[in-house]
Write a structure and sequence with these properties.
The protein is mostly helical. It has one domain (about 1-120). Helices cover about 70% and strands about 0% of the residues. It has 6 helices and no strands. This is DUF2784 domain-containing protein. InterPro entries: DUF2784.
């Protein structure tokens, strides 16, 4: 059971990373999601640039210990991403791309918010004859 729960934790962690990177684009469709995304993005920055531990990594480590395994060596990103999904040397470029994507998505959210009434006014209005 601990292996299954550790695997579920990894899947949730990956979904959280996707939300951090691309959640601003989801807010183009569902504007209130931007508040969840801002929190997730701030949390992602906090756990990556300060010694604050990620609770998902802690949870995975707990389930790993239940299986007799040790902590993730270097943390989630180091274990699953660096050197596996992309080379560690790409990290600065990926960081810049992530910042650009988030900023672009926020510009899109702001643009859609500013013009939200314009879209409502362009809908066809009923025609009354007589």
């Amino acid at each position: 059971m601990a292996k299954f729960l550790a695997d579920v934790t990894v899947a949730v962690h990956i979904l959280a990373l996707v939300l951090i990177g691309l959640g601003g684009f989801l807010a183009w469709r569902w504007p209130k999601l931007i508040f969840i995304h801002i929190f997730a993005a701030a949390w992602g920055v906090l756990v990556n640039v300060t010694p604050v531990p990620c609770p998902l990594t802690g949870l995975e480590n707990y389930f790993r210990h239940q299986q007799g395994l040790g902590d993730l060596p270097g943390g989630f990103n180091s274990y699953y991403l660096y050197g596996t999904v992309f080379p560690h040397s790409w990290l600065p470029a990926i960081g810049i791309i992530a910042i650009v994507l988030v900023a672009y998505s926020y510009v899109g959210v702001y643009h859609r918010w500013r013009h939200r009434h314009d879209a409502q006014e362009t809908h066809a209005r009923p025609v009354h004859l007589g």
